[in-house]
Design goal:
The chain contains 3 helices and 5 strands; from the N terminus they run βααββββα. It is an alpha+beta fold and 130 residues long. The protein has a 5-stranded antiparallel β-sheet.
């Protein structure tokens, strides 16, 4: 594992109708939706963590605590940034933020947990047999 505090990753997208609150069902207006913003933030944190893990390992999200502070119209680019700020055993804590072309649209924290992917899936699949 080569993860270290201070690692950063960015994910971006151009807002399309399918990313809107109207399409997602989280609102009636055609602007970048909060769930999509959170997903983009999680994607940045996921990739930040994965870059420092061996192939057999991955991470799962454990919590998200963010504010969505400004609307972004369809057609504008959004960039999410994740910075690893704490490693506590298998627990990872990230500062996450999102920006459109005019400034900050969201910020907060996101937790992830390191798992051994195959063992995790085997345990999850046991739920179907219960």
């Amino acid at each position: 594992m080569t993860l270290k505090v201070g690692d950063i990753y960015e994910s971006e997208l151009i807002v399309a109708y399918e990313h809107s609150a109207a399409a997602f069902g989280s609102g009636a207006i055609e602007v970048f939706s909060t769930p999509m913003m959170i997903g983009l933030m999680e994607n940045a944190a996921l990739n930040c963590a994965q870059n420092g893990l061996e192939e057999a390992f991955g991470t799962v999200g454990t919590f998200v605590n963010v504010k969505h502070m400004a609307a972004t119209p369809i057609g504008m680019k959004v960039t999410a940034k994740a910075e690893l700020i704490e490693i506590d055993g298998k627990k990872l804590l990230f500062n996450v933020s999102a920006y459109d072309e005019t400034g900050v649209i969201g910020e907060g924290t996101h937790g992830r947990y390191i798992i051994e992917s195959q063992k995790f899936l085997e345990k999850v699949n046991q739920k179907q047999k219960a």
